[in-house]
Specification:
three-stranded antiparallel beta sheet; 50s Ribosomal Protein L17, Chain: A; about 160 residues; 6 helices
């Protein structure tokens, strides 16, 4: 039985799997987007998300911990210099997996895995969505398009005071 074993072994021994995920992570940090199989992309997301979270706080301990996973100084410098400032305000979900179809040779599922904050095509759409605001089911409250009643009442009181003076 396979209870509690959620790790995808990817058909490799542990040392080979760690080396594979390390190399994929280094390529992802350097290129910001890589194409691989869907299974490897999903395994990479599980491997990489905690490292991105740890990289948001730049101190010696976190650098050493991440270096123990990556074993690459250039990738470590790139991670802390360009990637972590871009993801600093994001509370998770640093990677996006986009399915691309099937590989011609062996019909394996192919996917693109990319850093969310480094894709300009999707970033424009999300900025436009943020400008329109949040839409909820309830019409009351402080959702986009509505103002709290206390602000409206304060404005009315200010207008009355200005007309009397």
């Amino acid at each position: 039985m396979n209870h509690g074993n959620k790790l995808n072994h990817l058909g490799r021994k542990s040392a080979h799997r760690k080396a594979l995920l390390r190399n994929l992570m280094i390529s992802l940090i350097v290129h910001k987007r890589i194409t691989t199989t869907l299974a490897k992309a999903k395994a990479l997301r599980v491997f990489a998300e905690p490292l991105f979270t740890k990289s948001k706080m730049d101190n010696t301990h976190n650098r050493r911990v991440i270096f123990s996973y990556l074993q690459n100084k250039e990738a470590l410098i790139e991670l802390f210099a360009t990637v972590s400032p871009a993801i600093a305000d994001r509370p998770g979900g640093y990677l996006r997996i986009v399915k691309m179809g099937f590989r011609k040779g062996d019909a394996a599922d192919i996917a693109i895995i990319e850093l969310v904050d480094f894709n300009d095509v999707y970033k424009i759409k999300t900025d436009a969505a943020k400008a329109t605001g949040r839409r909820g089911r309830r019409g009351k409250g402080t959702a986009a398009g509505s103002t709290p009643t206390s602000v409206v009442e304060d404005a009315v009181i200010d207008e009355e005071n200005s007309t009397e003076a």
